[in-house]
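In this supplementary section we document a worked example of the pipeline. Step one takes a protein sequence of length 184 as its only input; no multiple sequence alignment statistics are reported here. Step two produces a three-dimensional model, which step three serialises into structure tokens for compact storage. The input and output of this example are shown verbatim.
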Amino acid sequence: MVGQVRVVGILMLVHGITVVLFGGVLVAVGVMLMAMPAGPGGGPEPWIMGGMYGGGGVLIAILGVLHSVAGVRVMGMKNRVLGLVALFSNTLLLMTCYCTLTAIPMMIYGLIVLFQSDVTRAFEMVAAGATPEEAVRRFTGHYGDVRDDYDDMSDSRRDWEDERRRRRQEDDDLRLDLDDERRD
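The serialised model returned by step three reads:
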């Protein structure tokens, strides 16, 4: 699961950027509403609606910045708690209904990954001075290893395979010796 931390960080960064853009759109709508003249009828004043849109847009943009910063920090395996705070702040984004399609999956996936005990130990290892690659390599079986899963099989199987290779080599040596004798 430690290998998934970088993926979570990237997704948090992308999610944060889209949330900031959405917050900016809401702020722009709020400014446009404030600039409108009051129309006839009994509706709310434009500055009230503009203030609500603008205030909500600023709050959403701040949450997007929180996600972006936390995503960058999580990619470097730093500030796990900031990542958790950012993921739990998705509950506030659910109120907009526009961010629900990205906020719910991001929150579920990120929390599953960041609450793993190996991930917690990897973050502690990086805090103690290790690089993120060392932490991933320590807690992930074949990170950066070109060998396949066959190399992790039990020793009895490995011994059997070694014996088979040894016999094959002896047979090849015997054939070479016989070929040499025939030529002579």
